[in-house]
Amino acid sequence: MSDMNALLDPARFADLTTRAARDPETFWSDEARRLEWIAPPSHARNGRGWFSDGLLNASANCLDRHLATRGDKVALIFQGEDEDTVLRLTYRDLHAQVCRMANVLRDHGVGKGDRVAIHLPSVPEGVIAMLACARIGAMHVVLFGGFSAEALADRLADSGARLVITADMGRRGAKQIPLKATMDRAIALRGESVETVLVVAVTGEDAPMTPGRDHALTPLLEVASAACTLEPMSADDNLFLLYTSGSTGKPKGMVHATGGYLLWAAYTHALAFDHREDDVFWCTADIGWITGHSYLTYGPLANGGTILIFEGMPSHPHPGRWWDVAQKHRVTTLYTSPTAIRALMREGDDVPARHDLSALRVLGTVGEPISAEAWTWFSTVIGKGRCPVVDTWWQTETGGIMIAPIPGSGTAKPGAAMRPLPGVQPILLDERAQPITGAGEGVLCITNAWPGQARTIWRDDALFCTTYLDPYPGYYFTGDGARRDEDGDLWITGRVDDVINVSGHRIGSAEIEDALAAEHVFAESAAIGIPHDLKGQGIVVYVVPRETAAADDAERAEALAKQAIAAVGKRVGRYAAPEQVFVVPDLPKTRSGKIVRRLLRKIACNETEGLGDLSTLADPELVPALIAKILG
After folding, report:
1. pLDDT over 70, % of the chain
2. Cα gap 494→515, rounded to integer Å
3. Which domains does the chain have, with CATH numbers?
4. Closest Cα to residue 424, out of 403, 395, 399, 455?
5. Could you tell me which residue ranges the Acetyl-coenzyme A synthetase N-terminal domain spans (predicted)?
6. Counting C-beta atoms within 10 Å of the first and last residue's C-beta, which end of the chain has fewer, N or C?
7. Band of the pLDDT at 591, cuts 50, 70, 90?
Protein backbone atom coordinates (compact mmCIF):
# COMPACT_ATOMS: atom_id res chain seq x y z
CA MET A 1 0.00 0.00 0.00
CA SER A 2 1.35 3.40 -0.96
CA ASP A 3 2.18 5.95 1.75
CA MET A 4 -0.16 8.89 1.21
CA ASN A 5 -0.03 10.61 4.56
CA ALA A 6 2.31 13.30 3.31
CA LEU A 7 2.31 15.55 0.29
CA LEU A 8 3.33 13.72 -2.86
CA ASP A 9 6.22 15.29 -4.72
CA PRO A 10 6.22 15.05 -8.54
CA ALA A 11 8.69 12.14 -8.54
CA ARG A 12 6.62 10.02 -6.11
CA PHE A 13 3.44 10.82 -8.03
CA ALA A 14 5.09 9.77 -11.30
CA ASP A 15 6.32 6.55 -9.69
CA LEU A 16 2.82 5.67 -8.43
CA THR A 17 1.37 6.35 -11.87
CA THR A 18 3.98 4.18 -13.57
CA ARG A 19 3.53 1.27 -11.15
CA ALA A 20 -0.27 1.37 -11.47
CA ALA A 21 -0.07 1.33 -15.28
CA ARG A 22 2.68 -1.31 -15.52
CA ASP A 23 1.18 -3.90 -13.18
CA PRO A 24 -2.38 -2.97 -12.12
CA GLU A 25 -3.01 -6.40 -10.56
CA THR A 26 -0.17 -6.00 -8.09
CA PHE A 27 -0.83 -2.29 -7.53
CA TRP A 28 -4.49 -2.76 -6.59
CA SER A 29 -3.82 -5.90 -4.57
CA ASP A 30 -1.34 -3.87 -2.52
CA GLU A 31 -3.79 -0.98 -2.18
CA ALA A 32 -6.52 -3.36 -0.99
CA ARG A 33 -4.54 -3.67 2.26
CA ARG A 34 -5.77 -0.22 3.27
CA LEU A 35 -9.11 -1.98 4.03
CA GLU A 36 -9.77 -4.55 6.74
CA TRP A 37 -10.90 -7.86 5.30
CA ILE A 38 -12.76 -10.73 6.94
CA ALA A 39 -11.21 -12.90 4.23
CA PRO A 40 -8.54 -11.17 2.11
CA PRO A 41 -8.92 -11.38 -1.68
CA SER A 42 -6.52 -13.52 -3.70
CA HIS A 43 -6.73 -11.27 -6.75
CA ALA A 44 -7.68 -7.75 -7.78
CA ARG A 45 -9.71 -7.59 -10.98
CA ASN A 46 -12.05 -10.27 -12.32
CA GLY A 47 -13.99 -8.98 -15.36
CA ARG A 48 -16.12 -6.10 -14.08
CA GLY A 49 -15.66 -7.34 -10.52
CA TRP A 50 -12.92 -6.41 -8.04
CA PHE A 51 -11.49 -8.50 -5.19
CA SER A 52 -14.31 -10.98 -5.89
CA ASP A 53 -13.28 -13.72 -3.43
CA GLY A 54 -12.67 -11.27 -0.57
CA LEU A 55 -15.08 -10.82 2.34
CA LEU A 56 -15.50 -7.54 4.25
CA ASN A 57 -18.09 -5.15 5.65
CA ALA A 58 -18.13 -1.46 4.73
CA SER A 59 -19.61 -0.36 8.06
CA ALA A 60 -16.92 -2.24 9.98
CA ASN A 61 -14.24 -0.60 7.85
CA CYS A 62 -15.64 2.83 8.69
CA LEU A 63 -16.23 2.15 12.40
CA ASP A 64 -15.28 -1.12 14.13
CA ARG A 65 -11.65 -1.25 13.05
CA HIS A 66 -11.04 2.23 14.49
CA LEU A 67 -12.43 1.50 17.96
CA ALA A 68 -9.19 0.17 19.45
CA THR A 69 -7.03 3.09 18.31
CA ARG A 70 -9.51 5.92 17.65
CA GLY A 71 -12.49 5.03 19.82
CA ASP A 72 -12.45 8.38 21.62
CA LYS A 73 -11.60 10.44 18.54
CA VAL A 74 -14.41 12.62 17.19
CA ALA A 75 -15.74 10.97 14.04
CA LEU A 76 -18.66 13.27 13.27
CA ILE A 77 -19.38 16.91 14.08
CA PHE A 78 -22.90 18.14 13.43
CA GLN A 79 -23.56 21.87 13.30
CA GLY A 80 -27.27 22.56 13.21
CA GLU A 81 -29.09 25.48 11.65
CA ASP A 82 -29.20 26.97 15.16
CA GLU A 83 -25.75 28.14 16.22
CA ASP A 84 -26.11 26.41 19.60
CA THR A 85 -27.05 23.03 18.12
CA VAL A 86 -23.77 21.10 18.00
CA LEU A 87 -23.31 17.35 18.29
CA ARG A 88 -19.95 15.59 18.46
CA LEU A 89 -19.88 11.82 18.11
CA THR A 90 -16.73 9.83 18.78
CA TYR A 91 -16.07 6.66 16.82
CA ARG A 92 -17.41 4.74 19.79
CA ASP A 93 -20.57 6.89 19.86
CA LEU A 94 -21.10 6.63 16.11
CA HIS A 95 -20.60 2.87 16.22
CA ALA A 96 -23.28 2.54 18.90
CA GLN A 97 -25.71 4.76 16.96
CA VAL A 98 -25.18 2.77 13.77
CA CYS A 99 -25.71 -0.52 15.61
CA ARG A 100 -28.97 0.74 17.10
CA MET A 101 -30.20 1.86 13.67
CA ALA A 102 -29.16 -1.47 12.13
CA ASN A 103 -31.06 -3.39 14.81
CA VAL A 104 -34.18 -1.30 14.17
CA LEU A 105 -33.92 -2.12 10.45
CA ARG A 106 -33.52 -5.83 11.20
CA ASP A 107 -36.48 -5.70 13.57
CA HIS A 108 -38.56 -4.46 10.63
CA GLY A 109 -37.53 -7.34 8.41
CA VAL A 110 -34.71 -5.71 6.45
CA GLY A 111 -31.96 -8.10 5.44
CA LYS A 112 -29.15 -8.64 2.96
CA GLY A 113 -29.99 -7.35 -0.51
CA ASP A 114 -33.11 -5.41 0.54
CA ARG A 115 -33.33 -1.77 -0.52
CA VAL A 116 -33.79 1.00 2.06
CA ALA A 117 -34.71 4.48 0.80
CA ILE A 118 -33.15 7.33 2.81
CA HIS A 119 -34.85 10.71 2.35
CA LEU A 120 -33.36 13.10 4.88
CA PRO A 121 -31.93 16.62 5.20
CA SER A 122 -28.33 17.23 6.29
CA VAL A 123 -28.57 15.60 9.71
CA PRO A 124 -26.43 12.83 11.29
CA GLU A 125 -29.17 10.25 10.84
CA GLY A 126 -28.42 10.21 7.11
CA VAL A 127 -24.85 8.98 7.56
CA ILE A 128 -25.94 6.69 10.40
CA ALA A 129 -28.64 5.12 8.22
CA MET A 130 -26.21 4.54 5.33
CA LEU A 131 -23.71 2.77 7.58
CA ALA A 132 -26.50 0.79 9.28
CA CYS A 133 -27.64 -0.54 5.91
CA ALA A 134 -24.07 -1.47 5.03
CA ARG A 135 -23.72 -3.27 8.37
CA ILE A 136 -26.59 -5.67 7.68
CA GLY A 137 -25.99 -6.01 3.94
CA ALA A 138 -28.98 -3.93 2.80
CA MET A 139 -28.59 -1.56 -0.15
CA HIS A 140 -29.21 2.08 0.68
CA VAL A 141 -30.97 4.24 -1.88
CA VAL A 142 -30.45 7.86 -0.85
CA LEU A 143 -33.02 10.23 -2.35
CA PHE A 144 -32.34 13.96 -2.61
CA GLY A 145 -34.60 16.06 -0.39
CA GLY A 146 -35.37 18.41 -3.27
CA PHE A 147 -37.04 15.74 -5.41
CA SER A 148 -40.75 16.10 -6.13
CA ALA A 149 -43.20 13.38 -5.11
CA GLU A 150 -43.28 12.13 -8.71
CA ALA A 151 -39.49 11.90 -8.90
CA LEU A 152 -39.39 10.06 -5.58
CA ALA A 153 -42.12 7.70 -6.73
CA ASP A 154 -40.17 6.74 -9.86
CA ARG A 155 -37.14 5.84 -7.75
CA LEU A 156 -39.15 3.96 -5.13
CA ALA A 157 -40.86 1.89 -7.81
CA ASP A 158 -37.65 1.12 -9.70
CA SER A 159 -35.63 0.21 -6.61
CA GLY A 160 -38.40 -1.79 -4.91
CA ALA A 161 -37.50 -0.23 -1.55
CA ARG A 162 -39.29 -2.00 1.29
CA LEU A 163 -38.43 0.52 4.03
CA VAL A 164 -38.15 4.33 3.93
CA ILE A 165 -36.37 6.60 6.40
CA THR A 166 -37.57 10.20 6.12
CA ALA A 167 -38.02 13.27 8.34
CA ASP A 168 -40.96 15.28 9.58
CA MET A 169 -39.50 18.40 7.99
CA GLY A 170 -36.28 19.71 6.50
CA ARG A 171 -34.91 23.19 6.98
CA ARG A 172 -33.64 25.38 4.18
CA GLY A 173 -32.84 28.72 5.70
CA ALA A 174 -36.05 30.22 7.01
CA LYS A 175 -38.15 27.73 5.03
CA GLN A 176 -39.39 24.36 6.18
CA ILE A 177 -39.59 21.56 3.61
CA PRO A 178 -42.40 19.00 4.23
CA LEU A 179 -40.36 15.86 3.58
CA LYS A 180 -42.77 13.39 5.18
CA ALA A 181 -45.80 14.77 3.35
CA THR A 182 -43.91 14.64 0.05
CA MET A 183 -42.84 11.06 0.70
CA ASP A 184 -46.42 10.10 1.54
CA ARG A 185 -47.55 11.40 -1.86
CA ALA A 186 -44.73 9.46 -3.53
CA ILE A 187 -45.70 6.21 -1.81
CA ALA A 188 -49.33 6.75 -2.79
CA LEU A 189 -48.27 7.20 -6.43
CA ARG A 190 -45.91 4.24 -6.94
CA GLY A 191 -44.62 3.02 -3.61
CA GLU A 192 -46.31 -0.39 -3.51
CA SER A 193 -43.11 -2.05 -2.28
CA VAL A 194 -42.84 0.16 0.82
CA GLU A 195 -43.89 -1.69 3.97
CA THR A 196 -42.45 0.57 6.68
CA VAL A 197 -41.69 4.28 7.07
CA LEU A 198 -39.43 5.48 9.90
CA VAL A 199 -39.67 9.19 10.68
CA VAL A 200 -36.83 11.29 12.11
CA ALA A 201 -37.99 14.23 14.22
CA VAL A 202 -35.89 17.09 12.81
CA THR A 203 -38.11 20.06 13.67
CA GLY A 204 -40.68 18.42 15.94
CA GLU A 205 -43.52 19.58 13.71
CA ASP A 206 -46.55 17.33 13.42
CA ALA A 207 -46.29 15.05 10.42
CA PRO A 208 -48.97 12.78 8.96
CA MET A 209 -48.55 9.20 10.20
CA THR A 210 -50.18 6.13 8.70
CA PRO A 211 -50.99 3.62 11.49
CA GLY A 212 -49.21 0.31 11.12
CA ARG A 213 -46.82 1.57 8.46
CA ASP A 214 -45.26 4.70 9.96
CA HIS A 215 -43.19 4.85 13.15
CA ALA A 216 -41.34 7.59 14.99
CA LEU A 217 -37.69 6.56 14.84
CA THR A 218 -36.33 8.03 18.09
CA PRO A 219 -38.34 5.79 20.49
CA LEU A 220 -37.25 2.72 18.52
CA LEU A 221 -33.58 3.72 18.70
CA GLU A 222 -33.80 4.36 22.44
CA VAL A 223 -34.69 0.74 23.17
CA ALA A 224 -32.49 -0.85 20.51
CA SER A 225 -29.24 -2.60 21.43
CA ALA A 226 -25.93 -0.78 20.85
CA ALA A 227 -24.39 -4.05 19.66
CA CYS A 228 -25.13 -5.49 16.25
CA THR A 229 -23.50 -8.38 14.45
CA LEU A 230 -22.34 -7.47 10.98
CA GLU A 231 -23.08 -9.23 7.71
CA PRO A 232 -19.98 -10.57 5.93
CA MET A 233 -20.17 -9.28 2.36
CA SER A 234 -18.46 -10.44 -0.78
CA ALA A 235 -16.52 -7.59 -2.35
CA ASP A 236 -18.85 -8.05 -5.34
CA ASP A 237 -22.03 -7.72 -3.23
CA ASN A 238 -23.98 -4.54 -3.86
CA LEU A 239 -23.40 -1.71 -1.39
CA PHE A 240 -25.81 0.93 -2.68
CA LEU A 241 -28.02 2.12 -5.48
CA LEU A 242 -27.93 5.80 -6.49
CA TYR A 243 -29.93 7.44 -9.24
CA THR A 244 -28.40 9.80 -11.76
CA SER A 245 -29.94 11.56 -14.73
CA GLY A 246 -28.85 10.73 -18.24
CA SER A 247 -29.83 11.32 -21.83
CA THR A 248 -32.92 9.11 -21.42
CA GLY A 249 -35.98 10.27 -19.53
CA LYS A 250 -35.77 7.54 -16.90
CA PRO A 251 -33.16 8.16 -14.17
CA LYS A 252 -30.49 5.46 -14.09
CA GLY A 253 -29.95 3.51 -10.88
CA MET A 254 -26.18 3.13 -10.65
CA VAL A 255 -25.10 0.11 -8.60
CA HIS A 256 -21.82 0.18 -6.69
CA ALA A 257 -20.30 -2.95 -5.19
CA THR A 258 -18.81 -3.11 -1.70
CA GLY A 259 -15.08 -3.84 -2.07
CA GLY A 260 -14.03 -1.88 -5.14
CA TYR A 261 -16.11 1.18 -4.29
CA LEU A 262 -14.96 1.36 -0.67
CA LEU A 263 -11.31 1.03 -1.65
CA TRP A 264 -11.69 3.73 -4.31
CA ALA A 265 -13.37 6.11 -1.86
CA ALA A 266 -10.63 5.58 0.74
CA TYR A 267 -7.76 5.67 -1.78
CA THR A 268 -8.92 8.83 -3.54
CA HIS A 269 -9.78 10.64 -0.30
CA ALA A 270 -6.33 9.93 1.12
CA LEU A 271 -4.51 10.88 -2.08
CA ALA A 272 -6.49 13.84 -3.42
CA PHE A 273 -6.84 15.65 -0.08
CA ASP A 274 -3.50 14.70 1.50
CA HIS A 275 -5.46 13.26 4.43
CA ARG A 276 -3.89 13.59 7.89
CA GLU A 277 -4.93 12.23 11.26
CA ASP A 278 -6.02 15.56 12.76
CA ASP A 279 -8.01 16.78 9.74
CA VAL A 280 -11.56 18.10 10.06
CA PHE A 281 -13.02 17.32 6.65
CA TRP A 282 -16.01 19.36 5.50
CA CYS A 283 -17.68 18.14 2.34
CA THR A 284 -20.64 20.46 1.80
CA ALA A 285 -22.55 18.06 -0.47
CA ASP A 286 -25.93 16.54 0.33
CA ILE A 287 -25.83 12.77 0.90
CA GLY A 288 -28.39 12.52 -1.88
CA TRP A 289 -25.53 12.87 -4.37
CA ILE A 290 -22.49 10.67 -4.92
CA THR A 291 -20.17 13.31 -3.42
CA GLY A 292 -22.00 12.90 -0.12
CA HIS A 293 -21.52 9.15 -0.34
CA SER A 294 -17.82 9.08 -1.18
CA TYR A 295 -16.46 12.15 0.62
CA LEU A 296 -18.94 12.93 3.37
CA THR A 297 -19.23 9.32 4.48
CA TYR A 298 -17.23 6.38 3.19
CA GLY A 299 -13.84 7.84 2.21
CA PRO A 300 -13.13 9.96 5.30
CA LEU A 301 -14.53 7.45 7.81
CA ALA A 302 -12.70 4.51 6.22
CA ASN A 303 -9.54 6.57 6.70
CA GLY A 304 -10.35 7.32 10.35
CA GLY A 305 -11.07 11.00 9.71
CA THR A 306 -13.38 13.56 11.30
CA ILE A 307 -16.31 14.71 9.16
CA LEU A 308 -18.43 17.84 9.54
CA ILE A 309 -22.12 17.99 8.64
CA PHE A 310 -23.78 21.41 8.46
CA GLU A 311 -27.55 21.65 8.33
CA GLY A 312 -27.74 25.24 7.12
CA MET A 313 -27.05 27.34 4.04
CA PRO A 314 -23.92 29.36 3.12
CA SER A 315 -25.43 32.79 3.79
CA HIS A 316 -28.28 32.29 6.21
CA PRO A 317 -29.13 34.04 8.45
CA HIS A 318 -26.28 36.36 7.42
CA PRO A 319 -23.42 36.50 4.92
CA GLY A 320 -20.41 34.56 6.14
CA ARG A 321 -22.33 31.74 7.84
CA TRP A 322 -20.07 29.12 6.25
CA TRP A 323 -16.99 30.96 7.47
CA ASP A 324 -18.49 31.04 10.98
CA VAL A 325 -18.74 27.24 10.82
CA ALA A 326 -15.24 26.78 9.37
CA GLN A 327 -13.73 29.00 12.06
CA LYS A 328 -15.71 27.48 14.95
CA HIS A 329 -14.85 23.87 14.11
CA ARG A 330 -11.30 24.51 12.83
CA VAL A 331 -12.01 22.98 9.42
CA THR A 332 -8.83 21.88 7.66
CA THR A 333 -10.28 20.63 4.35
CA LEU A 334 -13.19 22.30 2.57
CA TYR A 335 -14.69 20.49 -0.43
CA THR A 336 -17.49 22.36 -2.20
CA SER A 337 -18.94 23.33 -5.57
CA PRO A 338 -18.09 26.16 -7.96
CA THR A 339 -21.71 27.30 -7.64
CA ALA A 340 -21.25 27.84 -3.90
CA ILE A 341 -17.93 29.59 -4.50
CA ARG A 342 -19.49 32.00 -6.99
CA ALA A 343 -22.28 32.81 -4.51
CA LEU A 344 -19.74 33.43 -1.73
CA MET A 345 -17.69 35.67 -4.03
CA ARG A 346 -20.71 37.95 -4.42
CA GLU A 347 -20.73 38.66 -0.68
CA GLY A 348 -17.38 40.43 -1.01
CA ASP A 349 -13.87 39.73 0.19
CA ASP A 350 -14.42 41.53 3.49
CA VAL A 351 -16.82 38.82 4.74
CA PRO A 352 -14.29 35.94 4.90
CA ALA A 353 -11.59 38.42 5.93
CA ARG A 354 -13.42 38.89 9.25
CA HIS A 355 -12.93 35.20 10.09
CA ASP A 356 -9.99 33.12 11.26
CA LEU A 357 -9.59 30.52 8.51
CA SER A 358 -6.01 29.70 9.37
CA ALA A 359 -6.83 26.02 10.03
CA LEU A 360 -7.64 25.50 6.35
CA ARG A 361 -5.01 23.38 4.64
CA VAL A 362 -6.62 22.01 1.46
CA LEU A 363 -9.47 23.36 -0.67
CA GLY A 364 -11.45 21.26 -3.15
CA THR A 365 -14.09 21.78 -5.83
CA VAL A 366 -16.50 19.31 -7.43
CA GLY A 367 -19.52 19.04 -9.69
CA GLU A 368 -18.63 21.18 -12.69
CA PRO A 369 -15.63 22.91 -14.26
CA ILE A 370 -14.58 25.95 -12.25
CA SER A 371 -13.75 29.24 -13.92
CA ALA A 372 -10.27 30.73 -13.56
CA GLU A 373 -11.83 33.71 -11.73
CA ALA A 374 -13.59 31.57 -9.11
CA TRP A 375 -10.53 29.32 -8.73
CA THR A 376 -8.28 32.32 -8.13
CA TRP A 377 -10.66 33.86 -5.59
CA PHE A 378 -10.96 30.56 -3.71
CA SER A 379 -7.17 30.21 -3.67
CA THR A 380 -6.22 33.76 -2.75
CA VAL A 381 -9.11 35.04 -0.60
CA ILE A 382 -9.99 31.83 1.24
CA GLY A 383 -6.74 29.88 1.01
CA LYS A 384 -4.46 32.94 1.31
CA GLY A 385 -2.30 31.38 -1.40
CA ARG A 386 -1.08 28.63 0.96
CA CYS A 387 -3.81 25.99 0.39
CA PRO A 388 -3.71 23.71 -2.66
CA VAL A 389 -6.93 23.88 -4.68
CA VAL A 390 -7.96 20.37 -5.71
CA ASP A 391 -10.34 20.79 -8.68
CA THR A 392 -11.76 17.28 -9.05
CA TRP A 393 -13.39 15.62 -12.06
CA TRP A 394 -15.45 12.48 -11.54
CA GLN A 395 -19.01 11.14 -11.80
CA THR A 396 -21.62 9.06 -10.01
CA GLU A 397 -20.57 6.25 -12.32
CA THR A 398 -16.87 6.47 -11.42
CA GLY A 399 -17.49 6.25 -7.67
CA GLY A 400 -14.77 8.76 -6.81
CA ILE A 401 -12.22 11.24 -8.10
CA MET A 402 -10.54 10.40 -11.43
CA ILE A 403 -8.67 13.54 -12.49
CA ALA A 404 -7.37 16.23 -10.14
CA PRO A 405 -4.26 18.26 -9.28
CA ILE A 406 -2.92 16.21 -6.37
CA PRO A 407 -1.39 18.39 -3.62
CA GLY A 408 2.38 18.53 -3.98
CA SER A 409 2.50 16.70 -7.32
CA GLY A 410 2.97 19.83 -9.42
CA THR A 411 1.69 23.33 -10.11
CA ALA A 412 -2.07 23.55 -10.68
CA LYS A 413 -3.61 25.72 -13.39
CA PRO A 414 -6.76 27.69 -12.51
CA GLY A 415 -9.72 25.86 -14.04
CA ALA A 416 -7.83 22.79 -15.24
CA ALA A 417 -8.67 19.25 -14.13
CA MET A 418 -4.93 18.56 -14.66
CA ARG A 419 -3.75 14.91 -14.48
CA PRO A 420 -5.38 11.52 -13.78
CA LEU A 421 -4.88 9.80 -10.44
CA PRO A 422 -2.53 6.80 -10.46
CA GLY A 423 -4.53 3.89 -11.84
CA VAL A 424 -6.65 6.03 -14.19
CA GLN A 425 -5.82 6.20 -17.90
CA PRO A 426 -7.90 8.76 -19.81
CA ILE A 427 -7.85 9.13 -23.58
CA LEU A 428 -9.26 11.71 -26.00
CA LEU A 429 -11.00 10.39 -29.12
CA ASP A 430 -11.91 12.29 -32.27
CA GLU A 431 -15.17 12.03 -34.23
CA ARG A 432 -13.88 8.84 -35.91
CA ALA A 433 -13.13 7.28 -32.48
CA GLN A 434 -9.40 7.61 -33.15
CA PRO A 435 -7.02 8.56 -30.30
CA ILE A 436 -5.83 12.16 -30.25
CA THR A 437 -2.13 12.45 -29.46
CA GLY A 438 -0.56 15.60 -28.08
CA ALA A 439 -2.58 18.77 -27.68
CA GLY A 440 -6.17 18.56 -28.91
CA GLU A 441 -9.84 18.36 -28.01
CA GLY A 442 -12.22 15.43 -28.18
CA VAL A 443 -14.44 12.99 -26.31
CA LEU A 444 -13.08 11.93 -22.92
CA CYS A 445 -12.94 8.17 -22.41
CA ILE A 446 -11.13 5.87 -19.96
CA THR A 447 -9.00 3.06 -21.33
CA ASN A 448 -8.85 0.81 -18.27
CA ALA A 449 -11.04 -0.42 -15.43
CA TRP A 450 -10.67 0.93 -11.88
CA PRO A 451 -12.05 -0.36 -8.55
CA GLY A 452 -14.67 2.37 -8.06
CA GLN A 453 -16.39 1.87 -11.41
CA ALA A 454 -20.15 1.24 -11.13
CA ARG A 455 -21.01 -2.39 -11.67
CA THR A 456 -24.21 -1.90 -13.65
CA ILE A 457 -27.52 -0.07 -13.90
CA TRP A 458 -30.13 -1.53 -11.58
CA ARG A 459 -32.17 -4.14 -13.44
CA ASP A 460 -30.84 -2.97 -16.82
CA ASP A 461 -27.33 -4.15 -17.58
CA ALA A 462 -28.02 -3.80 -21.31
CA LEU A 463 -28.54 -0.06 -20.80
CA PHE A 464 -25.27 0.13 -18.85
CA CYS A 465 -23.44 -1.39 -21.80
CA THR A 466 -25.13 0.75 -24.44
CA THR A 467 -24.57 3.92 -22.40
CA TYR A 468 -20.98 3.49 -21.25
CA LEU A 469 -19.26 0.61 -23.03
CA ASP A 470 -20.69 0.35 -26.54
CA PRO A 471 -20.36 3.94 -27.88
CA TYR A 472 -16.56 3.56 -28.07
CA PRO A 473 -15.75 -0.17 -27.94
CA GLY A 474 -12.82 -0.94 -25.67
CA TYR A 475 -13.26 2.27 -23.69
CA TYR A 476 -15.48 3.65 -20.93
CA PHE A 477 -17.43 6.61 -22.38
CA THR A 478 -17.72 9.45 -19.84
CA GLY A 479 -20.16 11.61 -21.80
CA ASP A 480 -17.81 14.58 -21.31
CA GLY A 481 -15.54 16.38 -23.70
CA ALA A 482 -12.04 17.52 -22.75
CA ARG A 483 -9.07 19.45 -24.09
CA ARG A 484 -5.44 18.52 -23.55
CA ASP A 485 -3.02 21.42 -23.63
CA GLU A 486 0.61 21.52 -24.75
CA ASP A 487 1.76 20.49 -21.26
CA GLY A 488 -0.44 17.39 -21.26
CA ASP A 489 -2.91 18.82 -18.73
CA LEU A 490 -6.64 18.17 -19.16
CA TRP A 491 -9.43 20.76 -19.21
CA ILE A 492 -13.05 19.52 -19.05
CA THR A 493 -15.17 21.24 -21.73
CA GLY A 494 -18.60 19.92 -20.69
CA ARG A 495 -21.15 17.31 -21.66
CA VAL A 496 -21.29 15.95 -25.17
CA ASP A 497 -24.67 14.29 -24.59
CA ASP A 498 -28.02 15.78 -23.61
CA VAL A 499 -27.26 16.26 -19.93
CA ILE A 500 -27.41 19.68 -18.25
CA ASN A 501 -25.19 20.45 -15.25
CA VAL A 502 -27.02 22.84 -12.89
CA SER A 503 -25.07 23.70 -9.74
CA GLY A 504 -23.27 20.38 -10.07
CA HIS A 505 -26.51 18.40 -10.41
CA ARG A 506 -26.80 16.40 -13.64
CA ILE A 507 -30.28 16.71 -15.14
CA GLY A 508 -31.13 14.88 -18.34
CA SER A 509 -32.89 16.98 -20.95
CA ALA A 510 -35.16 13.99 -21.58
CA GLU A 511 -36.27 14.03 -17.93
CA ILE A 512 -37.36 17.67 -18.32
CA GLU A 513 -39.07 16.93 -21.63
CA ASP A 514 -40.89 13.92 -20.22
CA ALA A 515 -42.27 16.11 -17.44
CA LEU A 516 -43.59 18.56 -20.03
CA ALA A 517 -45.01 15.79 -22.20
CA ALA A 518 -47.35 14.90 -19.35
CA GLU A 519 -49.02 18.30 -19.85
CA HIS A 520 -51.51 17.85 -22.67
CA VAL A 521 -51.23 21.48 -23.72
CA PHE A 522 -47.70 20.92 -25.07
CA ALA A 523 -47.22 19.10 -28.34
CA GLU A 524 -43.44 19.07 -28.12
CA SER A 525 -40.55 20.50 -26.11
CA ALA A 526 -36.77 20.77 -25.99
CA ALA A 527 -34.65 21.48 -22.90
CA ILE A 528 -31.12 22.83 -23.27
CA GLY A 529 -28.39 24.14 -20.98
CA ILE A 530 -26.92 27.61 -21.36
CA PRO A 531 -24.15 29.35 -19.37
CA HIS A 532 -25.26 30.79 -16.02
CA ASP A 533 -23.03 33.06 -13.94
CA LEU A 534 -24.01 31.41 -10.64
CA LYS A 535 -25.20 27.88 -11.43
CA GLY A 536 -22.70 27.10 -14.18
CA GLN A 537 -25.55 26.11 -16.47
CA GLY A 538 -29.17 27.14 -16.45
CA ILE A 539 -32.07 25.31 -18.09
CA VAL A 540 -33.91 26.90 -20.99
CA VAL A 541 -37.00 25.20 -22.41
CA TYR A 542 -38.67 25.62 -25.78
CA VAL A 543 -42.29 24.43 -25.85
CA VAL A 544 -44.62 24.02 -28.82
CA PRO A 545 -48.27 24.41 -27.75
CA ARG A 546 -51.00 22.26 -29.24
CA GLU A 547 -52.97 25.45 -29.85
CA THR A 548 -51.26 26.70 -32.98
CA ALA A 549 -52.14 30.33 -32.29
CA ALA A 550 -50.96 30.34 -28.67
CA ALA A 551 -47.32 31.07 -29.56
CA ASP A 552 -48.35 34.42 -31.04
CA ASP A 553 -50.67 35.37 -28.16
CA ALA A 554 -48.48 37.08 -25.52
CA GLU A 555 -50.90 36.56 -22.65
CA ARG A 556 -51.53 32.91 -23.48
CA ALA A 557 -47.80 32.29 -24.03
CA GLU A 558 -47.02 33.73 -20.60
CA ALA A 559 -49.56 31.41 -18.98
CA LEU A 560 -48.11 28.41 -20.83
CA ALA A 561 -44.59 29.33 -19.73
CA LYS A 562 -45.72 29.39 -16.09
CA GLN A 563 -47.44 26.03 -16.58
CA ALA A 564 -44.21 24.57 -17.99
CA ILE A 565 -42.18 25.76 -15.01
CA ALA A 566 -44.75 24.34 -12.60
CA ALA A 567 -44.78 21.00 -14.45
CA VAL A 568 -41.01 20.60 -14.16
CA GLY A 569 -41.07 21.56 -10.49
CA LYS A 570 -43.86 19.08 -9.81
CA ARG A 571 -42.44 16.08 -11.67
CA VAL A 572 -38.69 16.57 -11.32
CA GLY A 573 -38.09 19.05 -8.50
CA ARG A 574 -37.75 22.76 -7.93
CA TYR A 575 -33.98 22.53 -8.37
CA ALA A 576 -34.61 21.73 -12.05
CA ALA A 577 -36.93 24.68 -12.74
CA PRO A 578 -36.14 26.39 -16.09
CA GLU A 579 -34.62 29.86 -16.11
CA GLN A 580 -36.61 30.72 -19.24
CA VAL A 581 -39.41 29.17 -21.26
CA PHE A 582 -39.87 30.13 -24.90
CA VAL A 583 -43.29 29.35 -26.38
CA VAL A 584 -42.67 28.77 -30.11
CA PRO A 585 -44.68 27.50 -33.10
CA ASP A 586 -42.19 24.73 -33.95
CA LEU A 587 -38.67 23.44 -33.32
CA PRO A 588 -35.82 23.30 -35.85
CA LYS A 589 -35.36 19.72 -37.02
CA THR A 590 -33.41 17.75 -39.56
CA ARG A 591 -35.33 16.10 -42.36
CA SER A 592 -35.21 12.89 -40.34
CA GLY A 593 -37.01 14.64 -37.48
CA LYS A 594 -34.13 15.16 -35.02
CA ILE A 595 -34.25 18.41 -33.05
CA VAL A 596 -31.17 20.55 -33.71
CA ARG A 597 -30.33 21.62 -30.16
CA ARG A 598 -27.18 23.40 -31.27
CA LEU A 599 -29.36 26.06 -32.92
CA LEU A 600 -31.63 26.36 -29.90
CA ARG A 601 -28.59 26.98 -27.66
CA LYS A 602 -27.22 29.63 -29.99
CA ILE A 603 -30.54 31.47 -30.15
CA ALA A 604 -30.99 31.33 -26.36
CA CYS A 605 -27.45 32.70 -25.91
CA ASN A 606 -27.99 35.41 -28.57
CA GLU A 607 -25.22 33.95 -30.69
CA THR A 608 -26.85 34.22 -34.08
CA GLU A 609 -23.73 34.81 -36.16
CA GLY A 610 -22.38 31.75 -37.94
CA LEU A 611 -25.35 29.43 -37.52
CA GLY A 612 -24.00 27.23 -40.29
CA ASP A 613 -25.80 25.65 -43.21
CA LEU A 614 -29.55 25.67 -42.54
CA SER A 615 -30.48 24.06 -45.83
CA THR A 616 -30.42 20.59 -44.27
CA LEU A 617 -33.31 21.52 -41.98
CA ALA A 618 -36.83 20.37 -42.67
CA ASP A 619 -37.90 24.04 -42.51
CA PRO A 620 -34.93 26.43 -42.95
CA GLU A 621 -37.21 29.48 -42.64
CA LEU A 622 -38.12 28.56 -39.07
CA VAL A 623 -34.74 29.65 -37.64
CA PRO A 624 -34.91 33.34 -38.63
CA ALA A 625 -38.53 33.36 -37.46
CA LEU A 626 -37.46 32.04 -34.04
CA ILE A 627 -34.65 34.59 -33.83
CA ALA A 628 -37.07 37.41 -34.62
CA LYS A 629 -39.60 36.14 -32.07
CA ILE A 630 -37.18 35.50 -29.23
CA LEU A 631 -34.53 38.16 -29.74
CA GLY A 632 -36.63 40.77 -31.52
Report:
1. 97
2. 24
3. 10-312+392-446 (3.40.50.12780), 499-631 (3.30.300.30)
4. 403
5. 15-62
6. C
7. low
